Amino acid sequence: MNKLFQILSILATLALFATACGAQVVQAQPAQAVPKAAAYEAVLGKSLNDKDVADFIVSNNCSRTGQFQTCNAAGVALWIGQDQKVETAYLYPNKVSDFGAYKGKLPLGLSSIDTMASVEDKFGQPKVEHAPQAGWEPGLPDESGTPDHIHYWAVYKRFGVTIVYNSPSATDKGATIYAILVSK
């Protein structure tokens, strides 16, 4: 778990860095059309040398920032691991900082207007398997934390996603999704 929080802390720091420096990069680039929705699933787990990854990076006007390929207009950032493979896709379902809203289909039936409560409902399960009238058990995360002290991170290992909320509190069930991290 300590390694997970180290990684999350690094990612949070890099995200804050990208936010702080992103405006300068955008100002230096000529105006470009917003790209079509990115198919992040096609690049997860693949090498930077893979044609699908190279095409994705070019077609979405991505730029390298440390271990990230940031595709601001597409609302996507790709975390590149030490082995130079795409390990995680960050999807921003709503416009945040220098990232446009991701226009593609979000994983696991998630929506840009989901709250923490609705995500827990979607990821939940029946309380009693043979008694549907018993209600629904919320889908609580396998791990969680607030590594950047700004956003609550709910890690759902069983689904391969981390939901980052726009609140630092695990009890703020009305908090909306800031980002969705999908890992291979």
How far do the termini sit from each other? 18 Å
The share of residues in helices is 10-25%
Number of E-state strands: 10
* Broad structural category: alpha+beta
SSE arrangement, N to C? HHEEEEHEEEEEE
- The strand order across the widest sheet is 1-2-3-4-10-9-8-7
Gross morphology: globular
Q: Radius of gyration from the CA trace?
A: 17 Å
Sheet of most strands = 8 strands, antiparallel
Name the beta content range: 15-25%
* Low-pLDDT ranges: 1-38
Calculate the mean pLDDT score and round it: 81
Total helices: the number is 3
Give the topology.
Layout: H1 2-28, H2 51-59, E1 63-65, E2 68-71, E3 76-80, E4 86-91, H3 116-122, E5 125-126, E6 136-137, E7 143-145, E8 153-156, E9 161-165, E10 177-183
Antiparallel strand pairs: 1-2, 2-3, 3-4, 4-10, 5-6, 7-8, 8-9, 9-10
